[in-house]
Design brief:
166 residues; 36% helix
Length: 166
């Protein structure tokens, strides 16, 4: 695997860091792995309710169905230092984008945007929060974050992948 301090890094952000952002974190890890890249990828929440918790059991089940292990993740809250650590800070909905833009230090060069902005025709769309719904909602969320991460990886990671270099 290729790793370098100049490589992009990704932080996915939702409300409590137990549903959407952990699934996006795992989806992007898969995309980086497919491309042979070892990247700094993480997730966080705008709120502090679940700090230290595993992802929601329904998120863990969804991840497992797709061959991923969400049990390696623990919820944490976004910090100001994240704006120095990550090159890309990705909001899962408009409320997260608003909170991140309020938090972003003026010196930060992090690119802050919504995940679905990476998917042609889905720009400005939220990834729906499945927390108050059924397990099926987590599958819908998975499909959205997977599509968003694939599109983002194609745009940002493919030029860096060892397989695309001559």
């Amino acid at each position: 695997m290729t790793t370098s301090p100049s490589l992009p890094s990704f932080l996915f952000v939702c409300t409590g860091n137990i549903c959407r952002s952990p699934l996006a974190d795992l989806a992007m890890r898969r995309e980086a792995e497919k491309r042979g890249l070892a990247l700094d990828i993480d997730s966080a929440g705008t709120g502090d309710w679940h700090i230290g918790d595993l992802p929601d059991p329904r998120a863990r089940s969804t991840a497992k169905r797709h061959g991923l292990n969400a049990s390696i993740l623990r919820a944490r809250q976004v910090t100001k230092t994240d704006f120095d650590r990550f090159t890309h800070i990705i909001a899962l909905d408009r409320s997260h984008l608003k909170a991140l833009n309020r938090m972003k230090p003026s010196h930060s060069t992090a690119n802050v945007f919504m995940l679905m902005d990476a998917v042609p025709g889905r720009e400005g769309n939220d990834v729906i929060d499945p927390y108050y719904g059924t397990a099926e909602g987590f599958e819908t969320t998975w499909h959205d974050v997977e599509a968003g991460c694939k599109a983002l990886a194609t745009r940002v990671l493919d030029p860096l992948s060892p397989s695309t270099k001559g």
